[in-house]
Amino acid sequence: MLNCLVGLAEDVAGLEDRREAMSIETLPALRPARAPWNKGRIIGQKRPLLPKHVWSIRVRLEMAENRRDLALFNMAVDSKLRGSDLVCLRVNDVYAAGRVKERASVTQSKTRKPVRFEITETTRLSLERWIKDPEMVGCEYLWPSRLHASPHLSTRQYARIMRDWVLSIGLEPSAYGTHSMRRTKVAQIYKKTGNLRAVQLLLGHTKMDSTVRYLGVDLDDALSLSEGIDL
Fold first, then answer.
1. Contact residues for 62 (Cβ-Cβ < 8 A; gap 6+)
2. How do residues 96-107 score in pLDDT, each as one tens digit?
3. Which terminus has fewer CB within 10 Å in the chain: N or C?
4. Fold of 51-214
Protein backbone atom coordinates (compact mmCIF):
# COMPACT_ATOMS: atom_id res chain seq x y z
CA MET A 1 0.00 0.00 0.00
CA LEU A 2 2.79 2.38 0.95
CA ASN A 3 4.56 1.62 -2.32
CA CYS A 4 1.38 2.46 -4.25
CA LEU A 5 1.08 5.84 -2.49
CA VAL A 6 4.73 6.65 -3.19
CA GLY A 7 4.29 5.73 -6.86
CA LEU A 8 1.15 7.87 -7.10
CA ALA A 9 2.97 10.86 -5.59
CA GLU A 10 5.79 10.45 -8.08
CA ASP A 11 3.30 10.33 -10.96
CA VAL A 12 1.62 13.54 -9.76
CA ALA A 13 5.00 15.27 -9.41
CA GLY A 14 5.98 14.19 -12.91
CA LEU A 15 2.70 15.49 -14.31
CA GLU A 16 3.26 18.88 -12.66
CA ASP A 17 6.78 19.05 -14.12
CA ARG A 18 5.45 18.31 -17.59
CA ARG A 19 2.72 20.96 -17.24
CA GLU A 20 5.28 23.55 -16.14
CA ALA A 21 7.54 22.69 -19.07
CA MET A 22 4.62 22.95 -21.50
CA SER A 23 3.55 26.34 -20.10
CA ILE A 24 7.09 27.67 -20.45
CA GLU A 25 7.29 26.46 -24.05
CA THR A 26 4.05 28.19 -24.95
CA LEU A 27 5.06 31.57 -23.50
CA PRO A 28 5.73 34.17 -26.21
CA ALA A 29 9.37 34.85 -26.85
CA LEU A 30 10.65 38.07 -25.37
CA ARG A 31 11.42 40.66 -28.01
CA PRO A 32 13.97 43.42 -27.64
CA ALA A 33 12.35 46.75 -26.83
CA ARG A 34 11.71 48.88 -29.87
CA ALA A 35 13.48 52.19 -30.08
CA PRO A 36 11.07 55.12 -29.55
CA TRP A 37 9.64 56.35 -32.86
CA ASN A 38 10.93 59.86 -32.17
CA LYS A 39 14.47 58.87 -31.19
CA GLY A 40 16.93 61.13 -32.95
CA ARG A 41 14.18 63.24 -34.47
CA ILE A 42 13.22 66.82 -33.88
CA ILE A 43 9.52 66.86 -33.03
CA GLY A 44 7.00 69.52 -32.18
CA GLN A 45 5.78 72.45 -34.20
CA LYS A 46 7.68 73.20 -37.36
CA ARG A 47 9.26 76.63 -37.49
CA PRO A 48 7.83 79.33 -39.72
CA LEU A 49 10.12 80.79 -42.33
CA LEU A 50 11.51 84.25 -41.63
CA PRO A 51 11.12 87.05 -44.21
CA LYS A 52 14.78 86.66 -45.21
CA HIS A 53 14.18 82.95 -45.84
CA VAL A 54 11.14 83.71 -48.00
CA TRP A 55 13.08 86.13 -50.17
CA SER A 56 16.08 83.81 -50.45
CA ILE A 57 13.96 80.90 -51.67
CA ARG A 58 11.96 83.14 -53.99
CA VAL A 59 15.09 84.57 -55.62
CA ARG A 60 16.55 81.09 -56.17
CA LEU A 61 13.36 79.85 -57.81
CA GLU A 62 13.20 82.93 -60.03
CA MET A 63 16.83 82.48 -61.09
CA ALA A 64 16.16 78.81 -61.86
CA GLU A 65 13.08 79.85 -63.89
CA ASN A 66 11.11 77.18 -62.06
CA ARG A 67 7.62 78.53 -62.73
CA ARG A 68 5.68 75.81 -60.98
CA ASP A 69 7.68 75.84 -57.77
CA LEU A 70 7.76 79.65 -57.65
CA ALA A 71 3.97 79.82 -58.00
CA LEU A 72 3.54 76.99 -55.47
CA PHE A 73 5.85 78.66 -52.96
CA ASN A 74 4.20 82.07 -53.27
CA MET A 75 0.75 80.53 -53.06
CA ALA A 76 1.68 78.51 -49.97
CA VAL A 77 2.80 81.69 -48.20
CA ASP A 78 -0.24 83.78 -49.20
CA SER A 79 -2.99 81.19 -48.80
CA LYS A 80 -1.87 79.82 -45.41
CA LEU A 81 -3.63 76.59 -46.37
CA ARG A 82 -2.88 73.15 -45.01
CA GLY A 83 -0.83 71.08 -47.42
CA SER A 84 -3.78 68.79 -48.11
CA ASP A 85 -5.85 71.76 -49.30
CA LEU A 86 -3.03 73.51 -51.16
CA VAL A 87 -2.24 70.54 -53.41
CA CYS A 88 -5.94 70.14 -54.32
CA LEU A 89 -6.42 73.70 -55.57
CA ARG A 90 -8.05 73.92 -58.98
CA VAL A 91 -7.24 76.53 -61.59
CA ASN A 92 -10.74 78.01 -61.32
CA ASP A 93 -10.25 78.51 -57.57
CA VAL A 94 -7.78 81.31 -58.30
CA TYR A 95 -8.35 82.22 -61.96
CA ALA A 96 -11.46 83.66 -63.60
CA ALA A 97 -12.30 85.92 -66.54
CA GLY A 98 -8.77 85.68 -67.88
CA ARG A 99 -7.04 86.91 -64.73
CA VAL A 100 -5.86 85.76 -61.32
CA LYS A 101 -8.21 86.71 -58.50
CA GLU A 102 -7.11 89.12 -55.78
CA ARG A 103 -8.96 87.07 -53.17
CA ALA A 104 -10.08 83.47 -53.19
CA SER A 105 -12.09 81.10 -51.02
CA VAL A 106 -11.89 77.33 -50.60
CA THR A 107 -13.54 74.76 -48.34
CA GLN A 108 -11.09 73.17 -45.93
CA SER A 109 -10.97 69.39 -46.12
CA LYS A 110 -10.36 69.04 -42.37
CA THR A 111 -13.17 71.23 -41.05
CA ARG A 112 -15.44 71.46 -44.11
CA LYS A 113 -15.60 75.20 -43.46
CA PRO A 114 -14.70 77.89 -46.01
CA VAL A 115 -11.62 80.04 -45.59
CA ARG A 116 -10.68 83.13 -47.59
CA PHE A 117 -7.22 84.35 -48.45
CA GLU A 118 -5.55 87.16 -50.35
CA ILE A 119 -3.39 86.70 -53.43
CA THR A 120 -0.75 89.42 -53.48
CA GLU A 121 0.60 90.99 -56.65
CA THR A 122 3.84 88.97 -56.51
CA THR A 123 1.87 85.75 -56.23
CA ARG A 124 -0.60 86.78 -58.94
CA LEU A 125 2.22 87.39 -61.41
CA SER A 126 3.84 84.02 -60.70
CA LEU A 127 0.48 82.24 -60.92
CA GLU A 128 -0.35 83.90 -64.22
CA ARG A 129 2.96 82.81 -65.73
CA TRP A 130 2.43 79.28 -64.47
CA ILE A 131 -1.18 78.98 -65.62
CA LYS A 132 -0.19 80.16 -69.12
CA ASP A 133 2.74 77.73 -69.28
CA PRO A 134 2.38 75.05 -72.02
CA GLU A 135 2.64 72.40 -69.30
CA MET A 136 -0.69 73.61 -67.89
CA VAL A 137 -2.73 73.33 -71.09
CA GLY A 138 -5.96 71.45 -70.33
CA CYS A 139 -5.15 70.98 -66.63
CA GLU A 140 -7.94 71.18 -64.07
CA TYR A 141 -5.67 71.25 -61.03
CA LEU A 142 -3.26 74.06 -60.28
CA TRP A 143 -0.44 71.66 -59.41
CA PRO A 144 -0.85 68.66 -61.74
CA SER A 145 1.13 65.58 -60.83
CA ARG A 146 3.77 64.37 -63.23
CA LEU A 147 2.78 60.84 -62.20
CA HIS A 148 -0.16 59.25 -63.98
CA ALA A 149 -1.54 57.74 -60.77
CA SER A 150 -2.69 61.10 -59.38
CA PRO A 151 -4.28 64.16 -61.01
CA HIS A 152 -2.46 66.54 -58.67
CA LEU A 153 0.58 66.71 -56.39
CA SER A 154 0.35 64.55 -53.29
CA THR A 155 1.11 65.93 -49.84
CA ARG A 156 4.18 63.68 -49.78
CA GLN A 157 5.46 65.20 -53.03
CA TYR A 158 4.78 68.67 -51.65
CA ALA A 159 6.75 67.81 -48.50
CA ARG A 160 9.72 66.73 -50.63
CA ILE A 161 9.55 69.96 -52.61
CA MET A 162 9.43 71.94 -49.37
CA ARG A 163 12.48 70.04 -48.12
CA ASP A 164 14.38 71.03 -51.27
CA TRP A 165 13.47 74.67 -50.71
CA VAL A 166 14.86 74.83 -47.18
CA LEU A 167 17.95 72.84 -48.12
CA SER A 168 18.67 75.27 -50.95
CA ILE A 169 19.21 78.10 -48.45
CA GLY A 170 21.13 76.04 -45.90
CA LEU A 171 18.40 75.42 -43.31
CA GLU A 172 18.04 72.21 -41.29
CA PRO A 173 15.20 70.34 -43.06
CA SER A 174 14.06 68.44 -39.96
CA ALA A 175 13.11 71.76 -38.33
CA TYR A 176 10.76 72.73 -41.16
CA GLY A 177 7.82 71.16 -42.94
CA THR A 178 4.71 71.96 -44.92
CA HIS A 179 3.15 73.53 -41.82
CA SER A 180 6.05 75.99 -41.85
CA MET A 181 4.48 77.49 -44.97
CA ARG A 182 1.07 77.73 -43.27
CA ARG A 183 2.59 79.47 -40.25
CA THR A 184 4.99 81.82 -42.05
CA LYS A 185 2.72 84.77 -42.81
CA VAL A 186 0.49 84.52 -39.73
CA ALA A 187 3.56 84.47 -37.48
CA GLN A 188 4.60 87.83 -38.92
CA ILE A 189 1.05 89.20 -38.67
CA TYR A 190 0.85 88.24 -35.00
CA LYS A 191 4.33 89.58 -34.30
CA LYS A 192 3.50 92.98 -35.81
CA THR A 193 -0.10 93.37 -34.62
CA GLY A 194 -0.77 90.95 -31.77
CA ASN A 195 -4.20 90.39 -33.33
CA LEU A 196 -5.07 86.79 -32.53
CA ARG A 197 -8.60 87.11 -33.89
CA ALA A 198 -7.28 88.10 -37.31
CA VAL A 199 -4.89 85.15 -37.30
CA GLN A 200 -7.73 82.82 -36.27
CA LEU A 201 -9.83 83.94 -39.24
CA LEU A 202 -6.93 83.65 -41.68
CA LEU A 203 -6.14 80.11 -40.54
CA GLY A 204 -9.79 79.07 -40.54
CA HIS A 205 -9.66 77.91 -36.92
CA THR A 206 -12.99 77.39 -35.16
CA LYS A 207 -11.61 77.99 -31.66
CA MET A 208 -9.22 80.65 -30.42
CA ASP A 209 -7.46 78.02 -28.30
CA SER A 210 -6.37 76.27 -31.49
CA THR A 211 -4.81 79.49 -32.76
CA VAL A 212 -3.02 80.16 -29.46
CA ARG A 213 -1.53 76.66 -29.47
CA TYR A 214 -0.68 76.87 -33.17
CA LEU A 215 1.28 80.08 -32.73
CA GLY A 216 2.81 78.96 -29.45
CA VAL A 217 1.64 82.12 -27.68
CA ASP A 218 2.81 82.31 -24.06
CA LEU A 219 2.94 84.80 -21.18
CA ASP A 220 6.16 86.38 -22.44
CA ASP A 221 4.43 87.21 -25.73
CA ALA A 222 1.53 88.80 -23.86
CA LEU A 223 3.88 90.83 -21.67
CA SER A 224 5.87 92.00 -24.69
CA LEU A 225 2.68 93.28 -26.30
CA SER A 226 1.64 94.96 -23.07
CA GLU A 227 5.03 96.65 -22.69
CA GLY A 228 4.56 98.23 -26.10
CA ILE A 229 1.52 100.16 -24.84
CA ASP A 230 2.51 103.25 -22.85
CA LEU A 231 -0.39 105.01 -21.11
1. 70
2. 999 999 999 999
3. C
4. hpI Integrase; Chain A (1.10.443)
